[in-house]
Design goal:
Blueprint lengths: L1 E4 L2 E7 L2 E7 L11 E5 L7 E4 L7 E6 L4 H7 L8 E6 L10 E6 L6 H7 L5 E5 L2 H4 L8 E5 L13 E5 L2 H10 L4 E3 L15 E4 L2 E4 H4 L2 E3 H5 L1
Parallel strand pairs: 8-9, 8-11, 9-10, 11-12
Antiparallel strand pairs: 1-7, 2-3, 3-6, 4-5, 4-7, 12-15, 13-14
Length: 223
């Protein structure tokens, strides 16, 4: 885990989202599904972001501007230097035989890097509008559905599902595919186990999602 002020090299609009590129420096990209804490200059707290892409010499994050922290990150310009800490948490297990990537909304964010690591397996991506669905071009080999169709309506059983998306989508995927690996979200202040801001109850115990997750086995959550 490394903390650096990383120079922004670009910020592109991808439909409703921003793809923020920064110089990699000494920061390792980590395992797909791990995350980084990103802090825009002048902002009081960092925000957790999954690594989206790891081109040579760069790290790229796909960001949905839903509040002040994410809007500040999306407004960064080349030459700005956000603080980056990571990689953090547990990523996806990559020892799967028949991978199927499943993403909902900004849950598409970790899938391009995951797809590269697994040799571009099939993916199913769901979005709320055609504008949000423009992010699907970042994931090779993807089938795209737009609401009112949901990813679970086109998911056939018997595959090794690796998913990221909103909680109701993850719960529905877990029911269909109990061996799925699911990347969960919780508000995070530190990202490395110190604040308990991300505590969730799993299997009757309080666990810190930034340490135990964000990727968890569906069985662990259902138990
Ligand atoms: C491990 C992890 C990886 C993530 N990866 C990405 C990513 O790649 N791209 C991306 O755009 N976002 C990602 N997120 C979500 C992102 O961190 C939050 O949207 C962001 O922190 C919101 O900050 P804000 O200041 O913009 O909005 P805030 O004002 O903090 O929040 C806006 C609204 O969203 C709710 N909220 C905030 N954070 C979360 C959260 N984590 N889970 C559920 N609800 C929340 C708040 O309660 C509030 O209603 C990730 C979150 C986690 C935990
Ligand atoms: S975010 Fe601080 S303990 Fe998880």
């Amino acid at each position: 885990m490394q903390r650096e002020l990383a120079e922004v090299t670009g910020a592109e609009q991808v439909g409703a989202y921003t793809l923020l590129r920064v110089q990699r420096g000494k920061i390792e990209p980590g395992i797909p599904g791990q995350f980084f804490m990103l802090e825009a200059p002048g902002r009081p707290l960092p925000r957790p972001m999954s690594l989206c892409l790891a081109p040579p010499g760069e790290l790229a994050f796909l960001i949905d501007p839903i509040g002040p922290g994410t809007r500040a990150l999306c407004a960064l310009q080349p030459g700005d230097r956000p603080a980056i800490l990571g990689p953090l948490g547990n990523g996806y297990r990559l020892d799967v035989e028949r991978p199927l990537l499943v993403g909902g909304g900004i849950g598409v964010a970790p899938l391009p890097y995951l797809s590269d690591a697994l040799g571009h397996p099939p993916a199913i991506l769901g979005f709320r509008s055609d504008c949000h669905a423009e992010a699907a071009h970042l994931v090779p080999n993807a089938k795209v559905v737009v609401e009112p169709t949901y990813v679970t309506e086109v998911l056939s059983p018997g595959q090794d599902v690796l998913a990221c998306g909103p909680e109701p989508m993850l719960a529905a995927v877990a029911k269909l595919e109990p061996t799925a690996q699911l990347a969960w979200e919780a508000p995070m202040a530190c990202g490395y186990g110190a604040c308990y801001g991300c505590a969730v109850e799993i299997d009757g115990e309080i666990k810190r999602l930034c340490v135990e997750g964000p990727v968890l086995a569906a069985e662990a959550v259902a138990a």
